[in-house]
Amino acid sequence: MKVLINGITISYNDQGAGLPLVFLHAFPLNRSMWEKQERALSSQFRIITVDLRGHGESDAPLWRYTLDQSADDVKMLLNYLAIQQALFVGLSMGGYILFAFYRKYADRVRGLILADTRAQADTPEGKEGRFQMAQAAYKNGPSTIANMMIPKLLSPLTIRTQPEIVQHVRTMIEGNQISGIAGDLMAMEERPDSIPLLGRITCPTQVIVGELDQATPPSDAKLMADKIPNAQLAIIPDAAHLTNLEQPEAFNRIIGAFASSLEKQTAS
Ligand code: MLT
């Protein structure tokens, strides 16, 4: 499905009924990374997945990108779908956008699931890496980005034994336009430190991380879970950064249990 939001076309899926769960994907992927979550959870909940601006079937304008702007796109999509509050699931960059969203629209958040993400801003080396990656994308195209990123996104075992997951990730990355890749890199590079926000998050929160995640390691997840009041932490074995693709059953179980507990709290 498509909708015109903030001057661009945004593509999304909306399936099922019940508590709305809104899924925000990682960089530089798209909403198809959530297919296994849609399939498993849409019999119980309303599952909304969105191609963030710059990705998948949404427009990738050649202009300035910010995480606040992506948060605004998500808020406008909620308005369009007449959803007042949702449980949000953000993986990595999706999590960074959730921090921006929470700063602006906390009243729209029923709960947060922060997967394989981190609250810290980029280090100076990290910022330099963003610049270099944007230049590599501009000069050599998105397949170079796929080659650079796949070893950071998936565990060595997944890369060796699950070629269909590797191919899916490669297809998502190669489907991006350079405007979207470079736009995201600039947006992530300038994101603020969200550590001061953590203590002010008052909604129920679940943190998830792959035990082998090197991009946003378990220590980052523990920091978030320690600082967000009453947050729960789940560490998924045998998964690196893309926990939802590498260990979908474990990921779906955690999401399903957390979403059900929110529904019960609402009903009581
Ligand atoms: C992601 O998976 O969204 C990226 O690894 C985030 C980042 O580059 O910081």
Provide an overview of this structure.
By secondary structure, this protein is α/β, with parallel strands linked by helices. Helix content is 49%, strand content 17%. It contains twelve helices and eight strands. Helix 1 (35-41) crosses helix 12 and helix 5 (142-153) packs across helix 7. The longest helix is centred in the C-terminal third of the chain and has 20 residues, at 248-267. D-malate (MLT) binds at residues 26-27, 92-93, 188, 215, 241.
Short summary:
It contains twelve helices and eight strands. With 268 residues, the chain is α/β, with parallel strands linked by helices.
Overview features:
about 270 residues; alpha/beta; 8 strands; globular; binds D-malate
- Characterize the largest beta sheet: strand count, sense, and whether it forms a barrel: 8 strands, mixed
Mean pLDDT: 96
Radius of gyration: 17 Å
Helical residue percent? 40-55%
Task: Give the SSE string.
Answer: EEEHEHEHEHHHHHHEHEHH
Tally of helical runs: 12
Strand content: 15-25%
Strand order of the largest sheet: 1-2-4-3-5-6-7-8
Number of strands: 8
User: Which blocks of ≥5 consecutive residues have pLDDT under 50?
Assistant: none
- Terminal Cα separation, in Å? 34 Å
User: Bound small molecules, which ones?
Assistant: D-malate
